[in-house]
Amino acid sequence: MKKNILASALxxxxxLVVHAxxxxxxxGKLKPExxxxxxxxxxxxxxxxxxxxSIDGYTTIDVIMAQPTHVxxxxxxxxxxxxxxxxxxxxxxxxxxxxxIRISLADELPAGRAVVKVVYGGKPHVAVRPPWDDGFIWxxxxxxxxxxxxxxxxxxxxxxxxxxxxxxDEPNEGVDMIITVPKDLVVAGPGxxxxxxxxxxxxxxxxxxxxxxxxxxxxxxxxxxxVVSRDYTTVDGHHVPxxxxxxxEHADKAEHxxxxxxxxxxxxxxxxxxxxWAKEKIGMVETPHLGMEHQTMVAYGNKFRYTKVGGExxxxxxxxxxxxxxxxxxxxxxxxxxxxxxxxxxxxxDVLYYRExxxxxxxxxxxxxxxxxIGNKVPVxxxxxxxxxxxxxxxxxxxxxxxxxxxxxxxxxxxFFPALKKFVTSxxxxxDNLVNTDDxxxxxxxxxxxxxxxxxxxxxxxxxxLDVYVKQLPGDQYLIQLQNMSIPLPLDISSDAGTKRLVxxxxxxxxxxxxxxxxxxxxxxxxxITIE
Length: 532
Ligand SMILES: [Zn+2]
What we know:
Elements: H1 2-22, H2 32-35, E1 37-49, E2 54-65, E3 69-75, E4 80-87, E5 90-91, E6 94-97, E7 100-109, E8 112-122, E9 135-140, E10 146-151, E11 175-182, E12 186-188, E13 192-199, E14 202-209, E15 221-223, E16 225-233, E17 239-247, H3 254-272, E18 282-286, E19 291-292, E20 298-300, E21 307-309, E22 312-314, H4 316-323, H5 340-358, H6 360-370, H7 388-391, H8 395-411, H9 413-424, H10 437-448, H11 453-461, E23 466-473, E24 477-482, E25 489-495, E26 498-504, E27 509-512, E28 518-519, E29 527-531
Parallel strand pairs: 1-11, 17-18, 18-20, 23-29
Antiparallel strand pairs: 1-2, 2-8, 3-7, 4-5, 4-8, 6-7, 9-10, 11-14, 12-15, 13-14, 16-17, 19-20, 21-22, 23-24, 24-27, 25-26, 25-28
Helix pairs in contact: 3-4, 4-5, 5-6, 5-8, 8-9, 8-11, 9-10
């Protein structure tokens, strides 16, 4: 059981290391030329050549300009060659360097809608150790068939298509993905498959999503796949196709895998409401890399290595990546600085599975195993306008999750769980409406009916722990006091009279006990105890 969470911690650690090596990142301070541009839709049409490890085609970008301009700026890695740029069907001069395409328009482009077409191709960046670094993965399955995948969480979409590579701007009207491959291979993409056209020795797959989507989820996979599917009925009664693009050689494992996914989806819907993309599909695809939360086609590469929770098969990777459909894809941070909202809340959600099928004790034991691994070297949030590489620390997972564990304890289940579901089902905080930490804090403070900001500030903006002072007084009495918290907090205190949940504040409380009181024995807080 513990190994799972350790595995995901190791998983994050390696991501950190490789990210640092590559310096390929996204987000950060928004460039003024891009700040006036609202991305509405991408059409990505590419022919994939496995022998050459190359792609060739075009991307069309639908934008709305907030004001007139003579310059358009898009992100695309220099590893690809731009051949032509058209703005509203008119050829325009451009320069492609430093991973940016700068289009200098002869005539001023008015405010309003515009369509930019970029014709390009070449050899996209190849990942070194996916998914711990980003790039194309040109692999083969054990039968020798090409097996290709892409990861782009750190680098962003600019890895292989021209875009505005910033978490604050998603294509709100969706994406069309038109991918051509050798005819015996299958393309797995986001949204719903519109059609497959066979022509000569090639096949073209047209995938389409109408939902807003993170740039790094605009991904396709190619392989010798079998599609194993079933109908899933959501908690709100909608019928949604559940599809697993599994390698033909593993097709015998697919039905059990989908049984597990149905169980996980029910569990997620119980806590977070209906599956977010119910108009399209629940999708998972087998990949040569470990995994990633690609919207409606989640990448799964854990090789069916299951463990047991509550006596039944459990896959930590499936559960974690699929959980991002709610936390990361439906609720999305507009600044990587607030990345903990994706990874911290989603890792907390991982532990809820233990609560659900292993019991409360299993849940508590998970968080007890988290605490020693929280590095606490840098705050979870290190500023504003932070790029992905800088924001990505392993504490956004473990400490972010532990923070939600503390908030649960402070609010109490009768307030906390309805609030958590209310947040992830509120139009104000989901889909097109991106969020930041202030949104989360203000919402939970309101739902809690108390100001939680001091707790948010302590856990997320500092490396300090809750400081609890215990002083022995005459007559078998003890003073218990909070040293660095301006709001009163509940605290489990074990004394010779048993364990009680008492409210402690900066002024302190006095309790009678013949033995030294034990503070917070079940570890609901990241704390430092000072005993005098
Ligand atoms: Zn994650």
